[in-house]
Each structure stands twice: as structure tokens, then as C-alpha cells.
Amino acid sequence: MSAIGERTAAPGSAAPPTGRGGRLWGQLLRIGFATGRGGPGDRLRFWALFAAAVAVAVVALGSVAAIATYDGRTARDEARGPMLTDRRQDAVALWRESFDAVGEVQHSVIYVSPLKADAPPPPGLTRWPAPGEAVLSPELVRRGEQERITTRYGHFAGTIGKSGLVSPSERFAYVRPAQPASELLKSDSWQYATGFGRAYPMGEGLNGRPLGQLLLTLGVLTGLPALSLLVVAARVGSRTRDRRSGLLQALGGTWRHRAVVNTGEAALPIAAGTVLAILPMLVAMSTDLRIPPTGYLLNSGDLRAAWPMTVAALPASFAVSLGAVVLLHGVQRDGTATRPRSFTSRIPRWRLYGCGAGIALVAISQYFRGTPGLLAFAFGTVAMWALLPSVAAAAGRALGSKFAARGFANGRPGQLIGGRWTVAHPGVVVRLAIAMVIGLGLICQIQVWNSRLGEKAAAARASEARVGDGVLTVYSRDITPPAIRDLAGSLPAGAALFSLDTDPEQPAPLLQGSCDALRSLGLPCPTAAETAEGGDRRLEEIRNWYGAQLRIRVAPKDLPLDRLYGQLLVIPEAPGQQAAVERAALAAVPAVNVETLGENWLTGASNKARLNNWILLFGSLGLALLLLAGTTSAAAEFVRVRHVLAPLAVLTGSDRVFRSVALWHLTVPLLIATFITGVVSAWHSLFFIAVVQEGSFSWSVLAGAMTGCAVLAVAVGLLGGRTAARAAHHWRPAAD
After folding, report:
1. Predicted structure pTM score
2. Rounded distance, CA 258 to CA 241, Å?
3. Is residue 426 a contact partner of residue 347, using CB atoms and an 8 Å limit?
């Protein structure tokens, strides 16, 4: 170490030879490498840095995967989009888009009919489907197996290739109607296409979100917790590093020398963690990987094409992790304090003011419309949750002085020492409370987001529970009297067919059908329109959706259907016949919509729920990282408590003082933080529901989460006391 003194004793003198300087830096690196494996808590620090490096690298590689996936999706979406024209002579195919659903998940159904024999088919198809054939995406075939999706649109002719799908998990279908093109042209719903190669919103692209929103969600919900874990890991084991930094400073070492030593100490675990993080990426590059709970399949080809970004992301994440460790280890210039900079006896006021400003920003966000209101709510939420642990620590510190005074008055050394430690070290409470505070907030927000079903969707869900597929709507502008006759002849046995006219100029909606059809609903057979009275539960559901004053009438021989305001209703004799009705309707009229009552509301809610699954994914990962950060911080605190409390065994002659100090210093402040966080979480969630007028708040979820945090707080205190008691049995006085 004398080299440091020689190098820094005469700043104005000439620099030593390069070889000697190189030996110095190498020696400092070896010192760092050696000191990282010999002191108390070094094993904990190694694994903490390892886990933090894995987290940071995974977030970086996740960002790379998102960018690569969006690039691939955009390219395939542009390649398959139709180039539409109004000129019949330039067209090579007829094109029409429709929608259908499997379960409650909507998918696009593209009807095509070539006008020229040599016209190239859409990307993903090796040939045009023959009349009456359908080509489906692999995911649609897999998910629709129970609903016999391969027979719904006609003869199944194979699956769409990956080049024709924005993602391997997309639900998509190409269908060629059995009718000739000349007959299809009688409908104005068909469009002319000159080919394919222009961006057009369809399939998954209809419900996608911009790349920036995805990266922002990943950064806020997962990236910030990863950085929190990195900060906690960098501060683990400060006792040993304090001594080392003091020695380096006494020998004349500068911040550069300390940085080199810290680099040697942290480089190995960070490098190992960074390398380990590449394994999931390698798996995703080799095969299409499904991401739970979203169900999304990553396209391995997109990730392989982005290998330069992957290679660049690894050293970048390594540099960020190592740089954070080095920068977070500073000392005071006067040498009076060598512990990494953190607040000790007081909490910076700006943290308390910042939390208040975040709460105020959330409160005033309701007065802004659109993007400004969303940004105000988002930034206010981030500031509030990021600084709320400091508010909880301030409350714990204020109560800590009262606990110490009461312990002194009642002769309770554990309460006295624990209260004074809480006052002297509020930063410990902040680090321990981060996981619980942000975790509670994430749990409540995820629950609220997933509850945003909507009034109409909730009504549709209730209707489904009452009658299932007992009432089916059939709608298309191309339904003609011959098509109605074909449909009536191909429905399952016993199914009743009605027409429903919802023209707003009428006194009330009008339901028409044969006398037998009306009797199947428990109705009479009036020849003139009259209000429907009585009837079974299926008629009650029709009234719920179309009006309580629903009128009925016996239809003439040919069932009338208003082209603008009309639709058909099918009442199957037995449940479970929706698939058969769909096949019959699609055979009679291409691109017809067959749905249960309110099904379109359920598909909309399902799309929203699938987007919420991404929030659940990133939020769960972030919560896991925060819990790991809290556990790491608690373990580090155990190491400190173990060494500081051990001498009390000589003074008290009892182990109970260790448990008492740990409970008052760790458990009680964490319980206070849990209570404050629960109150703020309830307010934040209820405020959000009141603003968006949607969703519900579960008090049981909040109670369960708070109970879990309370149990964790008690466990932290008990473990802290136990480790201190075990260390006391092996403690010997030393001249340190």
C-alpha cells in the first residue's frame, strides 16, 4: 500500500513510470477481489450484487426484446396489409374484414376471393384458398379446438405461416367464400385490392399499444425496482468497507483508488449475474417462447435479427451496475465519515415535501383531460410511492423517541435501545419499508385495473350466467330473404328463428317469428303488434337488452328483416349449440356476426384484461425485486445488529433483550409503515375509481396484503433478535 503514499505524496512531481502505475492498479484490483471474500457479510454482498446484476440485465434485455418484437411486427403488418383501390380493372382480389371470437377473445377474419389466377396470395399463404376453404393461424386452431373452429368457416385448408402473422400467438383467419366473385360483388361490403404491402390495422394491431408505452411500463414497474435492488446491494456490508476506505484515505488514496478497489470487489458478482441473464434470451432466440400470464408468443426470428442490440445491452448493463456500486460508495472529504452517504439522524425534508407534492399532483390530475391528466396522475403516483417510505420512516422516528422515553421510564432496556436506534437510523426503516410500501401499492393498483369490467360488460356477464348461449344474435347487412330461408333450413333441430327490428322511430322494438317460434318462448301468436307479456327467462333477457316494452307479432311467410335496423335472433332448443348455429350462418352469409347477448362487451373487456396482464407481469416482477431488496436490506441489518447487540449479553445476562431491541427497532416501525401505506393505497385506489367511473376496490385484498406485510414485519424482528442472540454466545471482547 506504500505505493499509494508514494503516488500521492507529491502531487506536483512527475508521474511514476507506466509499469509501476499499472502494477498499482493491478494490486488495488487484487485487494478488492480479496476483501470481497473475507469479511463479515461479504457472502451476502456477493449474492446481493449478483441478483441486482441479473435484474438490471434482464430489464435491459427485455427492452431489447420489446424493440425487436415491435420492429418485426411492423414489418409483417406492412407486408400483409391490403392495397385498396376503387378501380375494378386494377384489382387482383376482393377483400373484406370481419370479426369473430373464440371464448371471449376477438380475432380478425379476412375474406378474400382472387380475381386473377396469377395474383400472389397474402403473406403466410402458399396458395389462395379454394372456394369454401379457410386457413387459420396456429394459435386460433389451438385455442378454438373446443369450439370446433376448424369447421366454422368451411373446409380447413391448413395454417398461416409466421410471415403472415404479426406474432406467433395471433388469432387470425383467411376465408374464401363458396360463392363466386360475381355474386359477391352484389354487396357493397367488398373492397378491391391490387395486392398486399401496405400497413393496415387488423388482427393484434387493433389492440396494440405504442412501443413507448410498453417501455415506460417496463421501466416504471420493473426497471425502478431493479435499480432499488442495485442500490440496496451496493450498500450491503458497509462496515468492512468503511474500515477499508478509512485506511485507503489515511494512506493518501483518492476516490480513484477507492473506485478501483470497489471495482475489484464487485466486478465478479456483477459479471456473473450479467452473463446469467442472457440465458432466457438465448432460449427465446432458439424457440418461440410463451410469456405467462399474457399468453403472448415471442417470435424467435425477431430476437435473432436483433443480436447486435443484445450484444450491446450486456456490457451496457454491466457498466450501469458496476458504475452504481462505485458511485454509491463515497466518503466525506474531511475523513470524518466513511460510510456510504445516507441520512442518519434525520430524514431530508425534500423527501417529505416531494411525497406531498406527488399526492397533490394525483389529486389535481382529475381536472385535466386526456394526456395531460394521465401524465399528471402517472408522475404524481411515482413520486408518491417512491417517497412514501421516507414519510413512514419519519413517522416511525417521531414515535421512536416516545418509545425510548417510555422504555427509560419503565426500565425496559429493549424498548429504550430500540427506540433510540429508530431515531438515530431512520434510513434503515426506509430501506426495509420500500418493498412493503411499493408492493402494497402495486397489489392494490393491479386489483383495481383488473376489476375495470364496465357496466355493460358486467351486465353481459350476468346475462351469460343466466341463459348462456340460449339467445344468439345474427347480424349482417348482406342477409337477404334467400339467405334467411337457407339459414332456417340448416339450423339445429328445434331452434327458433326470429327477426328483431330496433328502428328508433317505432314505439318499441318489434320481435317477429312463426307461431311455433313464439310459443317456444311461452308467448301467444298475435297477428298485430302487441307488448310481450310473460314468457320464459330467455325472453326476459331479450327485454333486458332491447327494451322492457318489447312488442311481438307473428311474421308473414318470409321473415322480414330491416337492412339498417334489423337482426336475427336464434333460440336453440338446447344449450351448447352456438358452434352449429355459427356454421349454418357462415355457410349462408359470408362475414356474418353470430354472438350471445352482450358478447361484444365481453370481448372488449377481455381485450382490456389481456392488456392488464402485461401490467400484472411487470408489476409482479417488480414486486419480487422489491421483496428481494427488502430481504437483502433486512439481512444486512441482521449483520449489523448481530455485532452491535452482542456485548449486551455481558450486561444483561439474558437473551430477551435482543428480541426486544429488534422488535422495537425493526418490527414496530415496519408495522407503522404498513398502516400508513394501507391508508394511502385505499385512498389512491378509490380516487382512481371515482375519476374513471369504473372498477371496484377489494378491501379483502388490501386486508390480506397488509396482513402479509405485518407477518413479514414480525418475522424480520424475530430473525434479527435470533441472529443477535446466536452471535452473543460467540462474542469475545476485541480491541476494535
Report:
1. 0.78
2. 10
3. yes
